[in-house]
Design a protein that fits this description.
Layout (H helix, E strand, L loop, with lengths): L8 E3 L2 E3 L2 H15 L3 E13 L2 E2 L6 E2 L2 E11 L4 E7 L5 H13 L4 E5 L5
Parallel strand pairs: 7-8
Antiparallel strand pairs: 1-2, 3-6, 4-5, 6-7
Length: 117
């Protein structure tokens, strides 16, 4: 268990960080089999801020990334959907969520909660 009481859960041979994420994966697999979505990807990384080395001090600043739980194409309108399953939203998540949406306006971002699954 994590500090937020999420239980790692296995679905289709894949270990997910939470039961909610595993359940959403199973839903998305059904939608993919039905032809409603395609190209389902897991743990998709988006760069929010590129790391660099300061020319003045030589100090390294690491890249900042956001890792989405799922990404897929909605076949109804050919849009890329980026999803994150959330039980509890941390301040870090809320900040990265806003930044990634600003950085990648070509994608549709969705938060999936327990009430959605």
């Amino acid at each position: 268990m994590t500090k937020y009481n999420a239980k790692k859960t296995v679905a289709n041979g894949i270990t997910f960080d939470s039961k909610l994420e595993a359940e959403r994966y199973e839903q998305l697999m059904l939608l993919e089999r039905a032809g409603e979505i395609s190209g389902l990807q897991l743990q998709v990384e988006f760069q929010i801020f590129k790391g660099y080395i300061s020319p003045d001090t030589g100090e390294k600043t690491r890249s900042v990334t956001y890792v989405a739980d799922f990404a897929y194409i909605d076949n109804r309108d050919n849009r890329m959907i980026v999803e994150d399953t959330k039980g509890i939203e941390t301040a870090d998540f809320r900040l990265k969520w806003k930044l990634v949406q600003n950085q990648y306006p070509q994608y549709t971002f969705r938060k999936v909660t327990r009430s959605d699954v």
